[in-house]
Amino acid sequence: MKVKKESFGQIDNQPIFSFTLLNDHGIEVSAINYGGIITKINVPDKNGVLENIVLGHDTLNDYIQDSSFLGAICGRVAGRIKDGSFELDGNTYNLAKNDNSNHLHGGINGFNKVVWNAETLEDGVRFSYVSPDGEEGYPGNVTVEVIYTLNNENELTIHYGAQSDQKTLLTLTNHSYFNLSGDLKRDVLDHTLTIKSNQFLELDHEFIPTGHYLNVENTPFDFRNENVIKSGTNSQHPQNVLVGNGYDDPFILDNNHENEVLLKDPESGRILTIETDEPAVVVYSGNSLQSEGNFRGVPSRQYLGICLETQAFPDAIHHSHFPSITLEKGQSYSSVTKYKFGVAGKESFNK
Predict the structure, then answer these.
(1) What does the angle CA 332 – CA 333 – CA 335 come to, to the nearest 5 degrees?
(2) In whole angstroms, what is the distance from residue 346 CA to residue 48 CA?
(3) Which residues are catalytic?
(4) Closest residue by Cα to residue 148 from 262, 24, 31
(5) DSSP secondary-structure letter at 96?
(6) Choosing a second label site near 341 at 20 to 30 A (CA), which of 26, 71, 82, 145?
(7) How far apart are CA 266 and CA 284, in angstroms?
(8) How many C-beta atoms lie closer than 10 Å to residue 181's C-beta?
(9) How would you classify the pairing of strands 280-284 and 91-94?
(10) pLDDT, tens digit (0-9, with 9 covering 90-100), for 3-20
(11) Average pLDDT, stretch 44-62?
(12) What is the pLDDT of residues 236-288, one digit of tens each?
C-alpha cells in the first residue's frame, strides 16, 4: 500500500492537497481535503486496462464552481429537509435554503465546500473538521472525521465519525458519480443495478419523502434482480417522471453488509459492490446533469454518472416512523460504507 500527497492549489490562503491511495493491484483512489472530494478512482476492466470510474475535474477551481456535490462529503445532513427548518426540544432551527424552499446536503456551505484537516495514514487518509455551532443553521459544535482506506482486497472503505456538544441532526454520505465504462466512454444507461430492497420512499413534487413506503414489485424500481438503469429513464411511472425521467429515490435496504448494492457495466466487465451500515441508498441517475461544461474533456450530459448515496432517510426529522437522525450531546455517530471493485468472471485482479 502506498499513499501519495501532492499539492492541489489553495483557497483563502489554505493549502489544498490531493491524496492518492494505491494498492498492489494498481487500483488508485484520489481525494482532496476540499470537501473530502473523491476526484478519481482508477480500476482495471476485463482486459486489465486501468481507467477512471468517477466523474471529476483536474483543477480546484472547477470543484469550487461545482454545484453537483461531485464526489464530496455531504453533511451535516445528506438529502433534503423540508422547508429548511426543524424543531428539537421545542426550539425551531432555520437552515440555509439551497434547493428552492428546502435545505439540501448541508446547505450553501455544507461539508462539500469546506477545507478539512488531513492526516496521511498507512493505508489511507483521515479528514477532520469542526463544524461550529450555528453553521448553516444547525445547533452544536460538531467534530467530524471521515477516513478513506484502501486495501489489497480492492476495497475502499469510508468510515464516518462525529460527536456534538449539543443535540443536533447528522447523517453523512459520499456523493460520487460512478461510471464503470472507464474514462466516461459511455453513459450509464446500459449499466445494470441490483439492490436488496423491497420498498422505496414515495416523493412529492419537491422530491421530499411523503412518508409513504412503496413496494418495488412490478415497477421500474424493482432491482431485486439485475435490471438496467434505462428501465427507469424510459419509464412512465409517475415517480420516474417526477424526478426528471430516471431515479433520485431512496431505496430501503433489506440487509446490511451483505452485498446490498451491485452496479455492473457489461461491456467493460467492471463491477462495483457496496455494503453499508445505513438504512437506505439514494439512487440518482444524473437526470439533472447539465449539458454545460465537461469532466476532464468529456462534455457533461444527462445520465453520465450514477450516485449511490448510502445514508439515512431524507427529511427523517419530519417523519417519526423513519429511523432517527438525531445526534444527542456527547453521543458518538459512526457509519461505515465499503466499495469493492471487481471484474466479471475473475476472483481477483492481476498485478
Answers:
(1) 140
(2) 11
(3) 175, 309
(4) 31
(5) P
(6) 145
(7) 20
(8) 20
(9) unpaired
(10) 999 999 999 999 999 999
(11) 97
(12) 999 999 999 999 999 999 999 999 999 999 999 999 999 999 999 999 999 99
pLDDT over 80 at 111, yes or no = yes
**Count of residues in the chain:** 351
pTM above 0.85, yes or no: yes
Do residues 230 and 186 lie in contact, with contact meaning Cβ atoms separated by under 8 Å?
A: no
Which residue do the cell numbers 423513519 mark? 322
Count CB neighbours of 68 within 10 A: 19
How many other CB atoms are there within 10 angstroms of residue 124's CB atom? 22
Cβ contact 111:36 at 8 Å: yes
Which whole number is the average pLDDT over 182-187? 98
Nearest to 285 by CA among 164, 151, 188: 188
Nearest to 100 by CA among 78, 88, 89, 84: 84
12: left (phi over 0), alpha (psi -120 to 50) or beta: left
- Cα dihedral 158/276/339/281 (nearest 10): -110
Q: Report d(CA 9, CA 2) in Å as an integer.
A: 22
Listing DSSP states for 106-153 in one string gives: T-TT-GGGSBPEEEE-SSEEEEEEEE-TTGGG--S-EEEEEEEEE-TT
At 207, list the grid cell: 422530491
Q: How far apart are CA 52 and CA 294, in angstroms?
A: 15
Write the CB contacts of 93 (distance below 8 Å, at least 6 apart in sequence). 85, 86, 87, 137, 138, 139
Identify which of 194, 192, 340 has the alpha carbon closest to the alpha carbon of residue 268: 192
* Backbone phi and psi for residue 83, each to the nearest 5 degrees, phi listed first: 60, 10
> What CA–CA distance (Å, rounded) separates 91 from 202?
28
Integer Cα distance of 321 and 215 in angstroms: 17
Assigned C-alpha cell, 285: 441517475
Strands 155-164 and 280-284 turn out to be unpaired
